[in-house]
Amino acid sequence: MNIGQAASASGVSARMIRHYEAAGLIPKAARAYSGYRRYDERDIHTLRFIRRARIAGFSTAQIKKLLLLWQDRQRPAREVKQLAAAHLSDLQTRIAELESIAHALTQLIAHCHGDERPQCPILDNLAGNGTAHE
Amino acid sequence: MNIGQAASASGVSARMIRHYEAAGLIPKAARAYSGYRRYDERDIHTLRFIRRARIAGFSTAQIKKLLLLWQDRQRPAREVKQLAAAHLSDLQTRIAELESIAHALTQLIAHCHGDERPQCPILDNLAGNGTAHE
DNA sequence: ACTAAACCTTGCCATCATTGGAAGGTCAAG
DNA sequence: CTTGACCTTCCAATGATGGCAAGGTTTAGT
């Protein structure tokens, strides 16, 4: 299987397959005589794993660890759970930050009449001219 | 005022002040005979505006527009409101995505016993199903 | 067999905001 | 006049991905 087939079979672009190889996430692919990279079902399986982990928001560094754990049949579930919990905690922090911003912005927008007049509490707030809403 | 003073007065690092200048967010600073950049209160005010807008999650492109609007005393509040609303919409989309991921991860973590045994629904899920690789 | 299309290779650039370092010039105080 | 804090510019890296270019390979159609 060439990289193109591996890409469509795994859902990971050929681009990113090469990238993951260079980044050490996956071992260097075997090469055909022509120099083309060769992939088998095992590789596709690994790529699908990576794709799902990316969708779940894991960083490449985290995925590297997850792959090691995945390939270790003796791994304790504890380690995986810890890694996932740390990631979940990150996610929740980010969510809270974004929600806080969204909340403030919602308030500002609600107080902006949004017509042709130049008065605008949104700009006033960014300018530091205080309290757009009480 | 040199760039260092401007940085501590505005809360924007000297590094980023130069960056914003190169990016066209702020006009090129006046220079002293020595080549040092000079800043006045007006510049500090602008830098504080930028800092607040960044904290609010606006992109530099959006901030560029906000600055133009801010400096235009005739601007209609409508335009500012539209820009802010578009940004809020982006924020809400991102929040929803992260929440969806966090929810799925929470489920997986809850079903992982997390002890010394190798069985782990988190890895199983990333691998594509109940049966892991091989 | 020849040719064109589709595929592969490597490598460099761009994004976005920010930080880091290196190499060198300038200013203020001792 | 030296030292150290400050400034200058340029170059690089982050993280994940996309784009393009120039060139080699394979495959399918004639």
Protein model, in words:
The first copy, chain A, folds into 2 domains: 1-75, Orthogonal Bundle (Multidrug-efflux Transporter Regulator, Chain: A, Domain 2), CATH 1.10.1660.10; 77-134. In chain A, strands 1-2 form a two-stranded antiparallel ribbon. The first copy, chain A, starts with a helix and ends in a 7-residue tail after the last helix. The longest helix of chain A has 34 residues, at 77-110. Chain A is mainly alpha-helical. Chain A contains 6 helices and 2 strands; from the N terminus they run H-H-E-E-H-H-H-H. In chain A, helix 1 (3-10) crosses helix 3. Chain A has helices at 3-10, 14-22, 41-55, 60-71, 77-110, 121-127; strands at 30-31, 37-38. The mean pLDDT of chain A is 92. The first copy, chain A, is elongated and about 70 Å long. Chains A and B meet through helix 3, helix 4, helix 5 and helix 6 of A and helix 3, helix 4, helix 5 and helix 6 of B. Chain A binds a DNA duplex (30 and 30 nucleotides) through helix 2.
In short:
2 copies of one chain form a homodimer. Chain A contains 6 helices and 2 strands.
Which secondary structure elements does this structure contain, and how are they paired or packed?
The structure is a homodimer of 134-residue chains.
Chain A: H1 3-10, H2 14-22, E1 30-31, E2 37-38, H3 41-55, H4 60-71, H5 77-110, H6 121-127
Antiparallel strand pairs in A: 1-2
Helix pairs in contact in A: 1-3
The first copy, chain A, binds a DNA duplex (30 and 30 nucleotides) through helix 2.
